[in-house]
Recover the amino acids of this structure.
């Protein structure tokens, strides 16, 4: 977090997440960013203002939250 965000978002995941990847989707559900790197600090300054969905996915669970880019 923060939410709303301007330059970056942060995510602290539990240690149970293994072999995970993360996705940021725009308001239409289109994948804007996808990565398998650690999502601790994700720079979003290049994204247009709007509402986004942040997803972290591994073999056992999926975590989803919305954030606003201002």
């Amino acid at each position: 977090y923060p939410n709303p965000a301007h330059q970056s978002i942060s995510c602290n995941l539990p240690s149970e997440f293994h072999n995970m990847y993360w996705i940021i989707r725009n308001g239409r559900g289109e994948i804007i960013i996808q990565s398998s790197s650690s999502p601790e600090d994700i720079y979003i300054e290049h994204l247009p203002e709007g509402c986004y969905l942040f997803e972290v996915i591994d073999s056992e669970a999926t975590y989803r939250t919305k954030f606003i880019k201002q």
User: Anything to note?
Assistant: The first strand starts at residue 8 and ends at 10.
